[in-house]
Every structure is written in structure tokens, then in C-alpha cells.
Amino acid sequence: MNAVGFVSSDTLRANFSRAMSDMYKAEVPLYGTLMELVADTNQQVMAQSPEIASSLAQTGELQRLDMERHGAIRVGTAEELATLRRLFAVMGMEPVGYYDLSSAGVP
């Protein structure tokens, strides 16, 4: 049971993911177009193959179908990376990869 006044890690993660997605869609409008295309395609497939929609509904995956499960956050220092690791832990997440952009001349 949650302590009074605290938000669950699931809620934090969902809000964080939604905010990241909204920010990226604002910065890269074609990303929003891509998400719409994916949603339209999923709807068409489920309309043409009701058994797929039924299977997704039975397994609880239908609600998760349009959830984005990826993201990238650029950090510049080890301290920023450590801060993100701690924030991710609060949300029940783990950073899963790192690549150094300094060789590409990206600050």
C-alpha cells in the first residue's frame, strides 16, 4: 500500500514517458506522424483480424499496444548520468545503454 502523499512508480513512469514523448513530438513533428501511422496500422490489422484484437485483449496487451517503450536522454557529465540513474530507479527503470557522442563532434 502506498504511503499517503506518495505517487506510485508506475504513475511516475507513465507521466515521465508521456512528457518525453510529447516533448519529442514537439521537437520532431514527423515523430508524431509516425506514431499516428503506427496506431492507424494497428487498428487496420485488428479490424481485418479480430482474433489478433481478441488475443491482445485477453492477455491485457491491448492497452499497452500504443505505449512507447524507448527513449534517449542526452547527458554531458558523469554527475548527470548518476542523477538520471537515481531518477530511473525511483520510476522502476534502468538505463540500458550508453554511447559517447563526443567522437561525432556533438557537444
UniProtKB/TrEMBL annotation:
SMART domains noted in UniProt: DUF1338
Cofactor annotation: Fe(2+)
Highest taxon in the source lineage: Bacteria
One Pfam assignment: HGLS
Top EC class for this record: oxidoreductase
Enzyme Commission number(s) from the entry: 1.13.11.93
Record protein name field: 2-oxoadipate dioxygenase/decarboxylase
Organism name: Ewingella americana (strain ATCC 33852 / DSM 4580 / CCUG 14506 / JCM 5911 / LMG 7869 / NCTC 12157 / CDC 1468-78)
Lineage, highest ranks first: Bacteria, Pseudomonadati, Pseudomonadota, Gammaproteobacteria, Enterobacterales
